[in-house]
Design brief:
36% of the residues lie in helices and 34% in strands. It is of the alpha/beta class and 165 residues long. Strands 1, 2, 3, 4, 5, 6 and 7 form a 7-stranded mixed beta sheet that branches.
Length: 165
């Protein structure tokens, strides 16, 4: 699959599911090809929750580069979010950093499957790898903590939007 088609499809699916979508945002040493964000009051969290899906394309992906990208996504979302209340007082945040590539080695696939959900004060940070060849996704599907499982429902919905053709 061509990367343009892939990114256009993600942008369309996110938009169709209530995300505001931006394209081609420059960060330090990377370009966010698609950024989807939604902010809603979530009854189950009794909180205003912002969901960010931040998608880039990389050639050779290693663990250090993936971690660096995830951290950049978290910082971007913290600065960009519309609702500025402190996170425990009504400003929850979930980021899903998505790295698209034509090929991933087995080490990075296993890392993505086993990487724990990074929990922050009233927030969570996840990373997902997506193959441009077959749209196979690699991410931690079952976080070990109860709070992580609550956030994982949202992350699972996002994963379905990313992987749908």
């Amino acid at each position: 699959m061509a990367s343009k088609e892939f990114f256009d499809g993600i942008a369309s699916r996110l938009s169709d599911n209530g995300f505001a979508v931006s394209r081609n945002i420059e960060l330090v040493q990377c370009t966010l090809r698609v950024v989807g964000k939604s902010t809603d009051f979530e009854v189950r969290y009794l909180n205003i929750l912002s969901n960010y899906v931040l998608v880039t394309e990389m050639g050779n992906v290693d663990v250090g580069g993936a971690e660096d990208f995830s951290g950049k996504c978290w910082r971007y979302a913290l600065e960009d979010r519309r609702f500025r209340l402190p996170r425990p007082l009504g400003g929850g945040l979930i980021t899903v950093a998505v790295i698209a590539s034509h090929d991933f080695n087995e080490e990075i696939k296993e890392w993505a499957r086993s990487r724990p959900l990074q929990l922050h004060l009233a927030g969570a940070e996840s990373i997902m790898l997506v193959s441009l060849n077959n749209q196979e996704t690699f991410f931690r599907k079952e976080p070990p903590l109860v709070l992580g499982r609550a956030f994982n429902r949202d992350i699972g919905k996002i994963a379905k939007l990313i992987a749908t053709r």
